[in-house]
Design goal:
The protein has one domain. The protein contains two helices and no strands. The protein has helices spanning 5-32, 37-85. Helix 1 packs antiparallel against helix 2.
C-alpha cells in the first residue's frame, strides 16, 4: 500500500515523538533530581502524560485520514449503485 506524503510525515513525527518522550523523561528526571526524588518522579510522570496526549493527537490525525479515505470509497460505491438503479 502506497503512503502519501501526509501519512509519511505523521508516521515520522510519531516515531520522533516516542524518542522525545523517552529521552525527555530521562533528562527531566535528571534535571529535577536535585529537588528531591518524589518531586522528580512527579514531574517526570507529568511530562510523560502530557507527551502521550500529544502522541494520541498525532495518531488521531492518521485515524481520521484513514476514515476519510474509507468514506470516500463508500460514497463512490453508493453513487455507482444509485446510478445503476436509477437508469
Amino acid at each position: 500500500m502506497q503512503k502519501d506524503i501526509y501519512e509519511r510525515i505523521i508516521s515520522f513525527l510519531l516515531g520522533a515523538s516516542w524518542a522525545i518522550v523517552i529521552f525527555g523523561a530521562l533528562i527531566s528526571f535528571k534535571i529535577f533530581m536535585v529537588l528531591g526524588l518524589f518531586f522528580a518522579i512527579f514531574l517526570t510522570l507529568l511530562y510523560i502524560i502530557i507527551s502521550l496526549f500529544l502522541i494520541l493527537a498525532l495518531d488521531a490525525f492518521l485515524v481520521n485520514k484513514e476514515r476519510l479515505r474509507e468514506v470516500k470509497k463508500q460514497t463512490e460505491l453508493l453513487e455507482k449503485l444509485y446510478a445503476k438503479h436509477t437508469k
